[in-house]
TrEMBL record:
Lineage of origin: Bacteria, Bacillati, Actinomycetota, Actinomycetes, Kitasatosporales
Origin superkingdom: Bacteria
Entry protein name: Uncharacterized protein
Length: 209
């Protein structure tokens, strides 16, 4: 998913065209407009048929995640989400600006909701947030492993919620999110009030120079 900041002189088509030219000029074949697998990919999957089954499972989970991408900002308080494939499963790293990994239970509930969630269950949970004497600190990480209750495949999804202070300076993240049109209500939930105040004061000081 690509978000273009407001005020960018180039539109999506120009950005895509420039990136395609860069790929071609550097010996890389851009395949995002190719309707199917090329000859090299087809030969590889024919030689290793288990990879095709694995790819199909990953594609199904990835497609379901994309259709539910709004959950990561409507029911959680994370400001950055990264996702990648590792083996047969998807790995998600979510970063929060709070000293402890908060709001993740709401996200887990919606991700597994029988009405609109993914066909998965939380199979393993490594989290101390619910403990009465859990440390209130930066660097706190909660990890969750999911399995597919329709497929019987373990660890189809892995989610890590990491309380990342980013040097306790979120000016760059706040500025980027505002450029992409993030709502103020969500910003107030995702970032501590002091972080937004620090950004606004810094921004005003820069404008007065």
């Amino acid at each position: 998913m690509l978000a273009l900041p407001s005020g960018l002189p180039e539109g999506w088509e120009e950005v895509e065209r420039r990136h395609r030219h860069w790929c071609e000029g550097n010996g890389v074949r851009p395949l995002w407009r190719t309707p199917g697998l090329d000859l090299v990919e087809s030969a590889y999957l024919t030689a290793f048929p288990s990879l095709e089954r694995s790819r199909a499972r990953r594609a199904a989970v990835g497609s379901a995640l994309l259709r539910r991408i709004a959950l990561f900002h409507t029911v959680s308080a994370v400001y950055r989400v990264q996702c990648w494939v590792d083996g047969d499963s998807w790995k998600i790293d979510a970063r929060t600006a709070h000293p402890r990994a908060r709001w993740h239970d709401q996200l887990l509930q919606q991700l597994c909701h029988p009405r609109w969630g993914l066909p998965v269950n939380v199979s393993h949970r490594f989290c101390r947030c619910a403990e009465p004497y859990a440390p209130y600190q930066w660097g706190h990480t909660c990890s969750f492993y999911f399995d597919g209750h329709n497929t019987g495949v373990d660890d189809t999804l892995y989610l890590r919620v990491h309380a990342s202070p980013e040097g306790r300076d979120f000016d760059r993240q706040i500025e980027t999110l505002r450029q992409t049109g993030a709502s103020e209500d969500w910003m107030a939930r995702a970032f501590p009030r002091c972080a937004i105040q620090h950004h606004d004061q810094h921004y005003q000081a820069e404008r007065l120079r």
